[in-house]
Predict the structure.
Amino acid sequence: MNVQHVLALKKALDHLQANRPLQALEIARNILEHDPNLADAWFLSGVASDAANQTGQALEHLNQACQMVPDSWEYLNHRALVLYHLGRFDASRADYEQSLHHKPDNPEALANLARIHMLDHRPDLALPCFHRALAHEPENAILLGDLGVCLVALKFPREGIACYRAGLALAPGDAEIHYNLSRALLMVGDYREGWLENEWRWQTRHYQSVAKIFPHPLWQGEPLQGRRILLLQEQGFGDGIQMIRYAALLVGMGGMVLVVCDQPLLRLFATMPAVHGVALFDDPPPTADYCCPMMSLPKLCDTRLETIPSAVPYLFPLSNHHLPKGWESHKRPVVGLIWRGKTRHQLTLNLLKPLLSVQTVSFISLQKDAREEELTGLPILDTQSFLSDFAVTATLMVELDLIISIDSATAHLAGALGKPVWILVSHASEWRWLAEGTRAPWYPTATLYRQTKPDSWSETIDNLASDLTAWAEKQILLPG
């Protein structure tokens, strides 16, 4: 490398550090025209391309640099980051592991490798990486927050809370840590502080990308006598089904409740006696004195674990809706099955075969996206052609003796209808199911079956199948 190239690389690096990646790219291009075998120039060009959001070129140039110098921890580390941003997590993990082989105590590589393990639902592998990274950067608030997430996923919520508090002591305005703290507090039943912390959600990265349209003044707990209040569905369908229960409480305060929601919930929410009117988000907003995002209702109503409005049913089926063909032919107890949620919580019907082997039960699929090949040859009636919205699902559910569901919006619906529901809860459970136990504080007719190992459902499903056999025998013996 000649002196001119050394000076040019330094100037390019100065541009890069001053957030001028295009100027750095131009210098690197000029150097490579004269010396295409200069690995540092390929590396700097790759880093600058990444900073300029030219991710494809960044990966190409970093590949060239890594090919020339395969044992450079720095080259590997940055290529791993680009691969991470491209969603190529397996390749990113391999590069981070190789980078750490050459520089074992690099906190950035350790932290990013831990984050990939978390994406793979392997908090057990992430934990030692986070600890090693924090040993070198003990006052890194983001790392402390990430360690908190890891500990909560490992079912150590109180230790996670301690990490969140340590992170907030260093970065009091970090909305991500506040929001994660809120869910951990709710998980351990600390609803007083949990709901307060939950209001930080509006400042998190996720919520900054969500359109926040408040057509009326936000309700802050003012008297509602004679007032109209518009509730805004927030987050997923299950969250809406869980929180619409507060409509009855608001009516009890003298308010008239209106709701804006997504189409799949429209007719369902209209079945609620406390709801005066329902509209879609694309409709002109109903006239009201106040509005309130649904997830703020527990805080504004001062909800504690022991004061959850848990009377069921609070949602109801449609009247005069026909049932699928073949429904009436069932003589045995009828059980509905849901094995996939919309996003996070997933099972396969194949994993539920121990349940389907229970001969004394008839099974109904309430899975909206069930695939034909999943159901072929199995003793289960497919109803998905009828499942146009949650109101229809509710109409089918009320005819069932039991619902068995993965943690999903449909599980919430069964609970809101007051139906017996057995809910399969993943090892890293959500706040609403608390950290342990079989009872669900929000749904008195629900029983929780918790995943005992983060990478396996077999033990939980075997236990559930055994309980289903015993339950079915009792149903057969019941009079009538």
